[in-house]
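Late entry, written up from scratch paper. The run itself happened at the end of the previous shift, but nothing got recorded in the book at the time, so transcribing now.
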Amino acid sequence: MNCRRSDAPSPWLETLRLALREFTSADFDDLHRLDTDPRVMKYVNRGRPATREETAAAIRRIVRYPRLYPDLGIWYATRRDTGAFIGWFSLKYAGRSPDVEIGYRLLHDAWGHGYATEGAAALLDFGFDELGLHRIIGVTDPGNTASQHVLKKVGMSDRGWGRYYDKRLRLFAADNAEPAR
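Output as recorded:
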């Protein structure tokens, strides 16, 4: 079954199994399905599923983000083989800090298939190779060991604790070994 919408933007980044594209307001239902699953939201939004109003506000922020910060954003992720929505990946500023972070949120059915690692690795490469970033971070709730495992698998090292999004979170980081362009 192919779930691609004919009016959706083309992917800007593809990996072996994933396609990332810009979000549109028409993606509301997919984002709301993701953000109302209690398993997905366990470590975000104080563990609460999002309301319809919160999802609508999130879509507006997501669509606006790349206009404010070119080359950064939150991208709608699909499986390349079926076109099915699996979640999102991001490369964006970590709250009000100057640090750029990799993020991801996947539907529960997409867990355990290596998609988080594949997407995060592609964004790490993009951030270093295309954007010339010196450092990229990932932050997680202290209890989210699955996400911490993903960050380690893509080459980020555990840097202890950091304060992001007004919370004390586990901090992982990777430094670009290449000189800036």
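The domain at 13-175 is CATH 3.40.630.30 (Aminopeptidase).
(Scratch paper discarded after transcription.)
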